[in-house]
Amino acid sequence: MSRKSSPEKIIPEKIIPEKITREKIPPENSSTRSSAEQQSSLNWLAISVFSISAVLTLFAVPYYALTHGFDAWQIAAMVIGVIFCEISITAGYHRLWSHRAYEAHWLVRLFFAIGGTYAVQNTILHWSSDHRIHHNHVDNNDRDPYSAGRGFWYSHMGWMIREYNLNPYKNYENCKDLKKDPIVMFQHKHYLPLVLGLNFGTSILLGLWHGDLIGMMLLAGVARLFISHHLTFFINSLAHIWGSQPYSDKNSSRDNPVIALLTFGEGYHNYHHSFQRDYRNAIRWWQYDPTKWLIRSLSLFGLAKNLYRTPLEYIETERAQMLLKNTSRKLSKRFHSEALSQRLHEEYEMLIANINAFARARKQWMEARRNSMIESCDLDALKLKAEAMKQNFLQQKKNWLNLNASIALA
Fold first, then answer.
1. Which of 41, 150, 305, 335 is the most exposed place for a label (fewest CB within 10 A)?
2. CA 317 to CA 310: how far, in whole Å?
3. DSSP 3-state assignment of 1?
4. What pLDDT score does 286 carry?
C-alpha cells in the first residue's frame, strides 16, 4: 500500500458508486406484512443461539460467580473479546465493507474478518447486503430487513427469529464489489467451521491455559457473545427511537451519546444515515467514536487509505435546514410571529449563501493545488480567499445559531 496517497479525501457524495448506494431493488410480491409473517417459518438456529446465550449469561454466569467466582484473567478475556467483536463489526463489517468508507490493507481486513466471525453475526457478504438494503429503504416495513417501523423488538432481534426473506438478492448482487475480496469470499464459503472453531476453540484453549475451563467458557465464551450481540442490536433498535435528529427527520435514526458509548461510536446514527459513506459517525472532537479513531490511526501507519469525509458544506447545510424546520415549527404556534419568522428565513438564506461561497472558494483552491502550472502566489491568494470565505461562513453560522437560541428561549 502506498504511503504517498493522502489518508483522507473529501469527495462529493454524488460520485459514490451507484451499485453500492442506489442499486434498485427487484420487484417484490404484493403479499401483506401480516400474511408474510404467517408464512415465515421460525429460524430455530437463531432462536437456539439467542436463547441459550441469554439463559447461560443471565442465570449460569451469576450462579457460577457466587459459587466459584471469576478472576481478573477471566474478566479480561471477556472484555477483550467483546472489544474485538464490536470493533470488527463497526470498523470492518459496517464502515469498511458495507459502506466502503475507506480502503484497508489485507492484514486489517483479515483481522476484522476473524473478529466478525468470532462475533457470530453472519458473513461479511450477507451482513453487508442486508445493511445496504436497510439504508436504501430505511423504515420501509416491506423492504427494510430490520425496519424500526415494526417496533423495538422486531428491529432489535425479532427480524432474525423468523425467515422473513426481505433480502431479494439471493446471490448478493448488491455486493458485487465485495465478491472481489478473497478474504470476504473465503469467510463466506467456510463460515460455519470458522464460527465453531473460533468460538469453541478459543474458549477451550483459554480455559485449559487458565485452569478453569467451565468458568472461562461461561465468561469469555457465552457472556462475551451475549453482550456483543446486544450491543450491536442496539444500533438497529435504540438508535432509531431514542435521541435527537440534528441532521434529518426523513427517517427514524437518532443521535445519542449514550448509545455511542455502548457501541464504539455508532450511536451518532442520525449523522450516519444522513452521510452514510463518511468513515466518521461523530464529527466533533469531544464526541466518542473509537471506531473513527482506530481507522484514522490505521491510515497514519499506512494500513488504511482513501478515508471518505463528507464535505463541510453538505453537513452544515443539512444542519441548517433541520434547525430552520424545527424553529419554524415553534414560531408557527405563536401569535404575531410573522416578522420574526421573516428574519429567521433571511438569516437562513444568508447562511446558505455563505456556505456556498466558501464551498466554491475551497473548490477553486483545491483544483489549483492539483494544477502544477499555477504560480505559488496565485495559489496563496486562492487559499486566503477560501479562508476568508470560511470565516464569513462561521460568523454567519454564529449569528444563525444565536437567533435560533433566542427564539427557543423567548
1. 335
2. 12
3. coil
4. 94
Tell me which residue of 159, 133, 135, 136 sits closest to 146, measured CA to CA.
159
pLDDT in tens, 293-351: 999 999 999 999 999 999 999 999 999 999 999 999 999 888 888 889 999 999 999 99
Query: Could you give the count of Cα atoms lying within 13 Å of 145 in the half-sphere of its Cβ?
Result: 24
pLDDT at 139 over 50: yes
Q: How many CA atoms lie within 13 A of 58 on its CB side?
A: 6
In this structure, are strands 8-10 and 103-104 parallel, antiparallel, or unpaired? unpaired
CA-to-CA distance for 219 and 106, rounded, in angstroms?
A: 31
- The whole-number average pLDDT for the span 161-172 is 81
Residue 242: pLDDT band by 50, 70, 90 thresholds?
very high
177 in Cβ contact with 187 (< 8 Å): no
Q: Phi and psi of 76, rounded to 5°?
A: -65, -40
Residues in Cβ contact with 374 at an 8 Å cutoff, skipping those fewer than 6 apart: 368
- The whole-model pTM stands at 0.87
What backbone phi and psi angles, to 5 degrees, belong to 129?
Answer: -60, -50
Cα–Cα distance measured from residue 267 to residue 61, given in angstroms and rounded to the nearest whole number: 28
Q: Is 301 helix (H, G, I), strand (E, B) or coil?
A: coil
Res. 230: pLDDT tops 50: yes
Task: State how far the alpha carbon of 227 is from the alpha carbons of 126, 198, 219, 328, 369, in Å.
Answer: 22, 17, 10, 42, 49
Q: What is the pLDDT of residue 21?
A: 39
C-alpha cell of residue 285 = 472532537
Residue 263 has what DSSP assignment? T
Query: Which residues on neighbouring strands pair with residue 8, listed in sequence order?
Result: 307
Strands of 56-123 (E only): list them: 103-104
- Exposed/middle/buried for residue 176 (C-beta within 10 Å: 0-12, 13-18, 19+): middle
Pairing mode, strands 307-309 and 8-10? parallel
Tell me, rounded to whole angstroms, the distance of Cα 125 from its chain centroid.
Answer: 16
pLDDT band at 371 (very low <50, low <70, confident <90, very high): confident
Distance (Å, whole) CA 406 – CA 156 = 39
5 pLDDT exceeds 70? no
Distance CA 397, CA 162 (A): 49
N-to-C CA span, the chain: 56
Q: Which residues, in sequence order, are bridge partners of residue 255?
A: 244, 268
Specify which residues 308 forms β-bridges with. Answer: 9
Cα–Cα distances in Å, from 136 out to 18, 20, 133, 192, 319?
11, 10, 5, 29, 21
